[in-house]
Amino acid sequence: MKNIVFICGSLRKGSYNRIYMEKMMQQVPENWNIKEVSFKDVPVYNFDLEGDQEPAAVTAFRDALGEADGIIIVTPEYNTGTPGPLKNAIDWASR
């Protein structure tokens, strides 16, 4: 069984990216495990919080990505770049 994580790069409730992601999630084979992972509670990256002081939201986000066989990110593009909160979460997860 495949474990697939979906991440919506927009935090807006009515996001077109969220609508599109939800449609994609409906198309995943039934025998796959799918999970939406949010980064809304991940704080701004701070080196001083690494290690023993790492926020629980960071640990949960990183663990969810680590358990996945695949990650699908559906995101808007702002000023030719990744939305700041998504980039921040990826920075935390990559540490």
UniProtKB/TrEMBL annotation:
Record domain NADPH-dependent FMN reductase-like: where: 3-95
Which InterPro entries does this UniProt record tie to the protein?
Flavoprotein-like_sf, FMN_Rdtase-like_dom, NAD(P)H-dep_reductase
Which cofactors does this protein require? FMN
Which GO terms label this protein's molecular function in UniProt?
A: FMN binding; oxidoreductase activity
Q: Which GO terms describe its cellular component?
A: cytosol
Keyword Flavoprotein assigned? yes
How it assembles, according to the record, is: Homotetramer.
By sequence similarity, the record places it as follows:
Belongs to the azoreductase type 2 family.
Name assigned to this protein: FMN-dependent NADPH-azoreductase
What is the species of this protein? Staphylococcus pseudintermedius
Question: Taxonomic lineage per UniProt?
Answer: Bacteria, Bacillati, Bacillota, Bacilli, Bacillales
